[in-house]
């Protein structure tokens, strides 16, 4: 199983750099190659460890390990080691466009099934980097999530893998969003799930897509208490509130009304609102429509 280890666990001593510090032995184990292969790669392709721990000992950082995992995947897909190293270490933008979405989806699904957190994270980062948030969502993640929903209905136990995948998607989107500069003082879009709603991924993707095009947005998370949302909406004075609900059981039309009465423009989003006339609030039920609407309101 691939996993991130705590630095003290690995080196047996404290004071190591934050953010991951891997021994070559551990990296070799995680990649499923011999330590000799790892050393050969380092010598031939200049992809050795970049950290130094306690003087002479070289250590791999999290970023080193991620790039090596990427390289390993490219090799598994049939690329020669030299080209794989060049591609993985040139930066993600130049690497993944050739990989079909269904292949990425299969790899992700398998990694989640095997409970390989680090591998799921690296694949998600790679995919987001190379094709962006919308295509990652529509072409790679939606088919997997819908498949999981189908399994769930059939009574197939996939709770653990679903949890691994969905929590890593949230984390990867968070990392992705952090790369885009934002002007916190600007009025923007406030995104929230209804108070009983835990299905947050669609609006997390919306938040990432807004970041990509420079639309300021604040994402409040799952199950946002009505009181909290109403308070934040009045204090932050957003251009728009996107209120997400995945199913009829989580819709909160009173909250929508309350926000509107406070002078806020609300867009209701997601299948939960289907067929409801929520006090004239526009309804969006796909990512592109939500993006268009936000862009139109912010005149971008
Ligand atoms: C992942 C998941 C979870 C995760 C959510 C993690 C997270 N952070 O989001 C967890 C484990 C928490 C979870 C919990 C539950 N879940 Co759940 N879950 C799912 C799963 C597998 C994917 C959800 C998802 O993100 N879907 C996104 C896409 C894939 O949904 P879609 O319907 O195809 O997309 C439509 C729209 O949303 C729109 N769209 C797509 N993307 C975007 C983006 C934007 C911005 C917009 C506007 C629209 C939009 O396009 C589609 C056309 O309508 C679905 C299965 C499924 N088919 O969705 C079940 C599913 C939604 N869950 C379900 C259930 C029953 C539950 C629980 C009640 C289970 C339980 N007993 O605890 C709880 C509910 C908790 C709650 N109070 O909300 C049911 C809902 C049935 C219903 N209609 O009421 C589903 C459909 C599974 C099933 N087949 O029965 N779940």
Structure summarized in a few sentences:
This protein is of the alpha/beta class and about 300 residues long. It contains twelve helices and seven strands. The site of cobalamin has 32 residues, from helix 7, helix 8, helix 9 and helix 12.
How would you describe this structure to a colleague?
This protein has helices at 7-11, 24-31, 35-45, 62-76, 81-90, 101-113, 117-153, 159-178, 201-212, 226-236, 253-261, 287-297; strands at 51-53, 57-59, 189-193, 217-219, 240-244, 266-269, 283-284. With 300 residues, the chain is α/β, with parallel strands linked by helices. The protein folds into three domains: 7-90, Multidrug-efflux Transporter Regulator, Chain: A, Domain 2; 101-178, Methionine synthase domain (Methyltransferase, Methionine Synthase (B12-binding Domains), Chain A, domain 1, Orthogonal Bundle), CATH 1.10.1240; 189-297, Cobalamin-binding domain (Rossmann fold, 3-Layer(aba) Sandwich). A five-stranded parallel sheet has the order 4-3-5-6-7, sandwiched between helices. It has a two-stranded antiparallel sheet with strand order 1-2. Strand 3 (189-193), helix 9 and strand 4 (217-219) form a beta-alpha-beta unit. Residues 1-18 have low confidence and may be disordered. Bound molecules: cobalamin. The site of cobalamin has 32 residues, from helix 7, helix 8, helix 9 and helix 12.
